[in-house]
Design a protein that fits this description.
mainly beta
Length: 127
């Protein structure tokens, strides 16, 4: 599966952005699809994930984004989205989408569990 992330940009605090992760080669619903981010000088961190269709499509969020971000999947477009509302300056980072197969629940927050990665898309939130 190949992944192409897009939708980043510059937004003021309190604003919204929607990131897209378009997949080709395989069907996104067959994978656990995750979003991660990395800010300058910081380690990559988990943002959100949506499990495969066979695992019920359960969504899981980092505490820092819960209630503000929503991950979703459009099977017809073979695309995963990350809707980001009420953005804060601390959300500024390079955002990556990733795909993993046969992930167990306890591993979905770990980037090493995902085998396929898209290029990053930059999100900058100004105060």
């Amino acid at each position: 599966i190949q992944l192409q992330a897009s939708g980043g940009g510059l937004v003021q605090a309190g604003g919204s952005l929607r990131l897209s992760c378009a997949a080709s080669g395989r069907t996104v619903s067959d994978y656990t699809m995750g979003w991660f981010r990395q800010a300058p000088g910081k380690e990559r961190e988990f943002v959100a994930t949506i499990r495969s269709r066979s695992s019920g499509g359960v969504t899981i969020y980092a505490d820092s984004v819960k209630g503000r971000f929503t991950i979703s999947r459009d099977n017809a477009k073979n695309t995963v989205y990350l809707q980001m509302n009420s953005l804060k300056p601390e959300d500024t980072a390079l955002y990556y989408c990733a795909a993993g197969e046969r992930l167990i629940l306890s591993s979905v927050r770990s980037g090493v569990s995902y085998s396929y990665w898209g290029q990053g898309t930059q999100v900058t939130v100004s105060s």
